[in-house]
Amino acid sequence: MKLRLHFVVDPMGWLCISMVFGIWLYNTFFIPKLVLLPHYNEGHIPWATVVCYYIASALCIAALVRASTADPGRLPVDPHIPHSEREHWELCNKCNLMRPKRSHHCSRCGHCVRRMDHHCPWINNCVGEDNHWLFLQLCFYAQVLSLFTLVLDFCQYYYFQPLTGLDQEKFMTRHELALLRVSALMGVVMFGGMTSLFYTQMTGILSDTTTIEKMVQFSNEIYGSKRSWQWALAEVCGTRWKLLWFLPLRNRQPLQASHHSRAHV
């Protein structure tokens, strides 16, 4: 599958994703400056802690950029419909284009998306068949980074040894308490929100039900399915190699349809 960039022209979405990026930038700058690097320089923490924090931060921002710019599964104006699959396609009553069943029209983006889960303003993009795995990665790495930040904020005052080589006239030293309180507040909000969202996404993936379908309240006879969690995640991530489920810098290749696949709206 070719890598296609996808940008949504939505001022509200730009504002939301700017806030998410600002939170990431704040913690990526101040936590190393206030906690990690000073304590590492004085031998209080190992180098592995610093490296792990930067890796978590890099994976989080990579997932954010990929999820916000990846094509969620936008349908072309003149799609090629195999003759054997025509019964699984339908006409969209909003854009008057043919689409596979389980696709939905996004009024914010102005087009249909294959297996659309929802439109997320925090990434300024739809979450659909081709970028759902990236959105799931974003939720996971945002949890990891937020929890990491909260632990470091806590350890700064209740566990780490006092620093001896600080310049008390520096801005960050004089305002350390306020800066870390802001960081802790961001960490609590992000960890709570991402944990709830990650749980919701995982339950939907394991039950093969999108957020839109949950809102429409289909009956269990229509969308309920029993399948292993390995196959469910492999189908979303586009690979059976579990290590690749955690890497945002790759392309997704759709797996062959299994006997669990169903066609419904």
TrEMBL record:
Compartments, as annotated in UniProt: Membrane
Signal peptide: none
GO biological process: protein targeting to membrane
GO molecular function annotation: protein-cysteine S-palmitoyltransferase activity
Top-rank EC class of the record's enzyme: transferase
Topology of the protein relative to the lipid bilayer: Multi-pass membrane protein
Known catalytic reactions: L-cysteinyl-[protein] + hexadecanoyl-CoA = S-hexadecanoyl-L-cysteinyl-[protein] + CoA
Cellular-component GO terms for this entry: endoplasmic reticulum; Golgi apparatus; membrane
Annotated transmembrane regions: 12-32, 44-65, 138-159, 179-199
PROSITE patterns hit by this protein: DHHC (PS50216)
Entry annotated with the keyword Oxidoreductase: no
Record domain Palmitoyltransferase DHHC: where: 88-216
Key words, A-Z: Acyltransferase, Membrane, Transferase, Transmembrane, Transmembrane helix
Enzyme Commission no: 2.3.1.225
Pfam families the UniProt entry points to: DHHC
Domain notes: The DHHC domain is required for palmitoyltransferase activity.
Family stated for the protein in its record: Belongs to the DHHC palmitoyltransferase family.
Protein name: Palmitoyltransferase
Taxonomic lineage: Eukaryota, Metazoa, Chordata, Craniata, Vertebrata
